[in-house]
Structure prediction request, 1267 residues.
Amino acid sequence: MTALLDVTAVSKRFAMGGILSRKQTDAVVDVSFTLASGTPEIFTIIGESGSGKTTLARMILGLEDPSDGQIVFEGSSAEERRNAARRLAFMRRVQPVFQNPFEAFNPLKQVERYLEATARTLLGLKDRTAIEDAMDGALQKVGLSYAEIKGRFPHELSGGQLQRVAIARALIPEPALLIADEPVSMVDASLRMSIVNLLRDLRDTFGVSVIYITHDLATAYYISDRIMIMQKGHVVEMGPARPVLETPQHPYSRLLKQSVLSTENAGQGVLEPADRSIARAAWENAGSGRLVEKPDGRMVRE
Amino acid sequence: MADSTDILTVKGLKAYYRMAYFGIDREVRAVDDITLSIRRNEVYGIAGESSSGKTSLIKVLAAAIRPPLEVVDGALTYRFGDIEIDPYKASSEEVNAIRWKHLSYIMQGSMSVLNPVRRIRHSFSDFAFQPMGVDKKTFWERTRAHLERLNLSPDILRAYPHELSGGMRQRVTIALATVCQPEFIIADEPTTALDVVVQKDVLAMIRDVQRQMGSSVVFVTHDMSVHANIADRIGIVYAGRLVEEGPTRTLFTAPKHPYTAHLVGSLPRIGDTTTKAALEGRPPNLADPPSGCRFHPRCPLAIDKCKTEVPPLETVGQSHRSACWRADEVKPLAPVAGQPAQVTP
Amino acid sequence: MRDYFTFVLKRLLQLAAVVFAGISAAFFITHLSPISPVDMIVNRVAAQSGGDPLAIQDLRDALAALFGTDLPLHEKFLNFWGRFLVGDLGPSLLAFPTPAIDLVMRALPWTVGLLVTSILLSWTIGNILGGLGGYYQNNRFLKAFGVLAMGVQPIPYYIVAFLLVLLFGYFWPVMPISGGFSINVRPGFTFEFIASVIHHSILPAASLVIVGLGISFLGMRAMVSNIVTEDYVTYAELAGVRTERVVFFYVIRNAMVPQLTGLAMALGGIFSGTIITEQVFAYPGLGSLLVNAVNAGDTTLVLAVSSIAVIAVAGAIFVIDLIHPLLDPRVKVK
Amino acid sequence: MFAIIRDLTRYNIEFAIGCVLVGIITLFALASFFAPVGPTMIYVVPPDMPPSLSYWFGTNSRGQDLFWQLSYAFRNTLTFGVMVAAISRIISITVGLLAGYLGGWVDRVLMFFNDIFVSLPIFPILILVYFVLRSNLDMFTLALIMGCLGWPFDARLIRSVSLGLRHREFTRHATFSGMTPRKIMFEEHLPYVMPIVLATAIANMIWSIGMEVTLAVLGFTNLNIPTVGTTLYWANNHSAMIVGVWWWILIPVILIVTLFIGLFLLTVSLNEYIDPRSRLRRMGGA
Prediction:
């Protein structure tokens, strides 16, 4: 079994301030995980704002260089992708899905522009019909067709449709990995599940692995194979999604779970503030200890 | 159903955006014929998707509308003690006299509602000193006591808004809106931008203040799980109209509108592994809404009648109203809620 | 506080860089001039004294040593900076052998006085009126003022100044149109002199104020009409905060910050404006001095005036920059 | 583009007036191509004739028909303004987009120079240039120099827009669609910057023409080329106001003020059209 993506002891420090006053913040600290190739999965990274989940995603996409550690995708690291040809080869295999579908398309341009550019540069297609076939094929995978979006501008489509077009665009080069940073937080409630279900179908039907980044434990539970919970740049708990979310062990994971608003007691007005002792334990010990493997396969920071 | 003990009654309210710009005239019916009433000492949740008109509705309720949004028709009556007032018929002095003292507002986006170059202390005195109507010393004593009651340190009075975290800032705006102990509070998505842990704390804080003061709160958010935890009653808004209204528990267990049934049924939950379906189609364009029932193009129960006739909002149960021709046939989508709540180890 | 100190330090470095670059540029541009200062003086002296060839050759050598004209350019440059740092800018050719720096220092108070007064007046009044104009968008007086300001704004200083001269100098001659004070008044700390100075400064100052007022009025009005749509203003209005409080503490106070930056950015232009104004009104400031120096081919004096101008403008921008973080608590002094 | 202009003329009175004023001056300038006399010829008509049917704008003390003389002057002045605007637009677009999109050290270096250029006192520099070049200072050189000085404000404006665009998701989307930085800058970002370019181009014309007039009036340009500035210079030189040849001064001043107000109205209305917030207010009919 070879690794699709191998993240080893990755850290990212940002220098704040200028030349005279230098402060450093640790956005990501010593994160390691591996995605196997051949067994597509949805790997979810959970965290609040400031947890480092977005920075980690940016590093995997090569938009940011790690300060320490190595990110190796299919045997090559970011340093080996400096030239344009290697970058393009990388983009054929790894593609992002964006947070806000209305933002992901230039409102002044037709949406097919992005699909066309992708087919042209990443697949190297020249012929108009070949390009249209590639676009239509990808759109079919997300339940749309080229005829539906031809000549359309972003404001003529709904958020859910746009997000599906964006995902179709990412699928054109038939990538092995999609990195989806909060792909549904800006999509309306009634359309949200169509995107979440689509990510699941991509894994099951087309064998695409997905790194799903979110703060929402409920959708994470719904689609993930494995999850990784991050707090202030540190991984606090990692393992098979359902057991971890059903019985979280790290204090921070438990705090997150307790903070999920349940609909079970709808209308009872029961709204206990999160247990302060858990919260305190979670924040005071942020980042201390090391990850320990448990019998059920999960890793917990102790 | 309009009861004189209700703090607010709204009858046949219509508010439209009217725009004429470079030759294009548009009329957007953001609030289209809404009738509802808010009781004393309750949290009334308003739910709806983006551009459903829910924000316009509460702007109208708060008498906070600006052109191009204008009230076209309908009546709006607040009852505070002896005062009975329709902000759209009263003078601006009369409206200003009830603001903050009786009617206050928590705006969306805690980042930008506080003056960035003014210390929090000054915001409190600007907003609340006059309505409270006491001398300086008493005012600051009460303000400090209020902050402490909300678990906020009075030290924050010295801070500038940008020196506080998002959650802290939102708590400060809630404290600011409630310091005069108003009877009616309008809260517009006050927790949307917050992290989950902070969100729960802030919701608990709003609920707490409301209980202590016995005020009425109108709470707007698109997030049904927030409504489940804070609202006593919920009104569901779709394309500018109120499509269903009822006690929170009823809406979650026995919805009588297919849209509500979908909203509450498609929420994923930890411990629930069933597949959740999405609603097809796209939210309607308010400038050109569908005919008849505005939900019909996306409705699984739609019949021909729905395409031509607008269903009225009718009573379908105890304080439960729904606007659907086939209300009786609506079934909850999800496994029935009400099973024992999950026990967290 | 320490943060503020490092901020000041960085701004000082930037100031030094701008001043150095500006003055060096002026140095190289003036030294591209084909006019030789030595020849100019020699010719003038020769014309006056008739000319003993030997004496003239002596004078030529002495002057060449004084100006360092025989040196290569980079040595001239180093020499220039060496002397510049001790305040020696060399003798003026126009009024040889008066040091150029003396002429500049004599002219400087006139320009600074004129500029400071007119900027303070136009900026303060323009911003207050503009702030009100942006908030009370339907006020007739402020609307009319806006139309007037829009009409005046695009017209360059020169034309405005010129029209003032025509109006108050020829058609209705009530104002003196040239000079800094009347010739028959002796300079000194007397009422007569001060009154004369003020009388003479009214027209030049008015021309600067008219244009400056329009610019700050329109800028402020645009700024305010954006700020009134900000959430914190809406929120304050919703809370029933008293209108005058909203106008001053929520609207104008917040618009001040960008307006101040705007002023800093515009100072260079304003300085250019005074050169013209002084020329039109024959006002004895830096502008007139510069124009005279250019016409006379006085390299040293041109360089001296330009250097002082660079220092003055960059210094003023520096001071405004220092005020900025004090006005806006959000500016991270980093 | 065409539809925007049509809408603007129909619904924005400032734009319509601006168009008319600028149009009149442009037509007047174009008339010079049919002039019966050359621009530099003097004493071809009786001097100091007041405006009349045969000499619409009168004649000056140098024996020139002011109508044709001013027609040449406006042609040169407008050409000059357009040249400066074009040169400075090229620099400001390039600098602004590069600094905004590439960011990092490119941005820092470009903005360092930008800051220096912003604080340069331009007018004294132009005087210095005249001091060096004297009568070799032709219109093209002057336009080139002013173009090289007149870009920093607008570059900063373009940079700030481009900086905002760089962080929008569609830019990253374009990158991952395999578009090159050049394609992103000039196809994705330029359309957002274009309205600013248009509006600032006109503002820049106002500025450069104003500068030219001022320089010329003080005698700091090539006085043999007829421009609005040199016309006023010669008028002053002949003490036109004192000897009563008022039309020599008044007519060019009126025309140039007309041009300025026309251009200014165009900028204002275009800016209003671009700015979404003032558009919102307009929608309210407030």
